Amino acid sequence: MPELPEVEVSRLGIEPHLKNARLLQVIVRHQQLRWPIPEIISQLRDQPILAVQRRAKYLLVQLPAGTILIHLGMSGHLKVLPQDTPAQKHDHVDWLLDNGKLLRLNDTRRFGAVLWQANGEGHELLDSLGPEPLTDDFTAEHLFALCQKRKAAIKLVLMDNHVVVGVGNIYANEALFKARILPTKPACELTLAQCAVLTNVVRKTLAQAIEQGGTTLKDFSRADGQPGYFKQELFVYGRGQQPCLVCEHPLTEIRLGQRSTVFCAHCQG
DNA sequence: ATATCCACCTGGCGGC
DNA sequence: TGCCGCCAGGTGGATA
């Protein structure tokens, strides 16, 4: 469930359990995620956890010597559980804490990652990322400037991490619908005004989803999964052929960059 | 530099 | 019930 809002909801859910706790030990059951988990991760012992932050879809667990980077990929989940909870299928990493709890990473498809960033060093995966969508760095002017250089479909540009981070397939579809812009429209054809609408819509949609994740938040450490809390808010994603919720014309579904793309040819034309 | 396609991996679904 | 192909919330990397 790792859209940016889900990652942020995860961060908000785990931070109270991790911050100011000590990391006693790390158990790596499956080292081969998207990349091998570095040896240094499994060798960590008795480290205070200083902070739990987020950059794009990476969670950053800050220790005195450096930072653990966690990416959830397509299927990753984090849970805080009592330390004696037996591991189940696809539970790949446990971080044991001194408060009787553990942080557990479950990732069916193993597209996620656990990496290490030493203090004072950047990380190549973070270095080239674009602005955070929920900060003032993501402006209409920034989006417009990059769009002018690209003739690719706006949906592909919106999902490009160099342009803005955190906009995945669901939110790219949803934001373009709300902005009334065709996903296939060449980015270089967008006006500054359209870029302004789009930046605002992206911001609003992500922020709203994070807020709704707050409901999930309080059950976060339960063993059971969480409901699709924003599912009822979706206008187009997963609704190909169904009537548009605004104009009732059937929604069109195509493939764009090998990703499912749904839009209303009437509203977004 | 951009654009395109592929790769990684497991599981759920619909169709035969 | 089984097998097969397709699909899935991501994104780095190879290629032209």
**Overall body shape:** elongated
- CATH C-level class of the largest domain: Alpha Beta
Q: How much helix is in the residues?
A: 25-40%
State the CATH topology of the largest domain: N-terminal domain of MutM-like DNA repair proteins
Strand order of the largest sheet: 2-1-7-8-6
What structural category arises from helix and sheet content?
Answer: alpha+beta
Number of helices: 7
Give the CATH architecture of the largest domain: Alpha-Beta Barrel
Distance between the termini: 30 Å
Number of strands: 11
What is the chain-wise order of helices and strands? HEHEEEEEEEEHHHHHEE
Q: How much beta, percentage-wise?
A: 15-25%
Q: What key attributes describe this structure?
A:
N-terminal domain of MutM-like DNA repair proteins; 27% helix; 11 strands; DNA-binding; 269 residues; Helicase, Ruva Protein, domain 3; alpha+beta; 4-stranded antiparallel β-sheet; 2 domains; 7 helices; 5-stranded antiparallel β-sheet
Polypeptide structure, described:
The chain is of the alpha+beta class and 269 residues long. The protein folds into 2 domains: 4-127, N-terminal domain of MutM-like DNA repair proteins (Alpha-Beta Barrel), CATH 3.20.190.10; 140-263, Helicase, Ruva Protein, domain 3 (Orthogonal Bundle). It has helices spanning 4-18, 39-42, 124-127, 140-148, 154-158, 169-178, 192-217; strands at residues 22-28, 47-48, 51-55, 58-62, 66-71, 76-82, 91-97, 101-107, 113-118, 252-256, 259-263. The strands form 3 sheets. It has a 5-stranded antiparallel beta sheet with strand order 2-1-7-8-6, with helices on one face. A 4-stranded antiparallel beta sheet has the order 3-4-5-9, with helices on one face. It has a two-stranded antiparallel ribbon with strand order 10-11. β4 and β5 form a beta hairpin. The structure holds a DNA duplex (16 and 16 nucleotides).
